[in-house]
Amino acid sequence: MxxxxxxxxTSYDDYKKVIDWCRDKSFKLSNGQVIYPSDFIYYPxxxxxxxxTERVLWNTPTYFDIWLIRNCPFDFIQNRLKEQYGGxxxxxxxxxHNESLYEQIKNGTSPYDTYVRPETGKKIKIERILGTPFxxxxxxxxxxxxxxxxxxxxxxxxxxxxxxxTDEWYTNDEELPCTSSAKFVKGSLTKKNIxxxxxxxxxxxxxxxxxxxxxxxxxxTEYLVTVI
Length: 228
Description:
Number of domains: 2
Shape: elongated
Number of helices: 8
Low-confidence stretches: 88-99, 137-145
Mean pLDDT: 84
Helix content: 25-40%
Order of helices and strands: EHEEHEHHHHHEEEEEEHEE
Number of strands: 12
Distance between the termini: 33 Å
């Protein structure tokens, strides 16, 4: 995440307040994952002597910010969130929509609250992509991985994001944790395996997945999978 998403504190007492408050907190996301706020703290065991004049508290994703806006009792955290979601530090750089996003999140009327995942596709179309095998210089650190998968929403070309902890794919609008833009798989790349894997993911209609197999840094086989 970019430095703009980080929260810095200049008071050790404030830092300690957040550590103590987060210690027994947890919350569940819409996909069932349990999130522990204390996991985001950069220095959970820092002492006053080690603190110095300023320290990074955390670098937070949107799903955690949403929870903080609705639950965190500290004004210094809420003020930082207002800067991020209310345009407080550069109002001219934001649209009217973004300037009110903090209040929308707090009231449960934000785009994150009203988002509805597109209908799940019921059919799967698998097409072999024909072409000459080519060398992929980025594959040097994936030599042990027989094939990998990447996905996108065909309508708007946005990437799908993969969460290896839940073995699920999410759209940009869902604001759920992801670990990569690709899934790396060991095993044989067959149409049967592809079909079973995609069916399990329950992807939205219009999603396209690319399955690419490599051998010695060469991409040798690719399949385009469309969910319809």
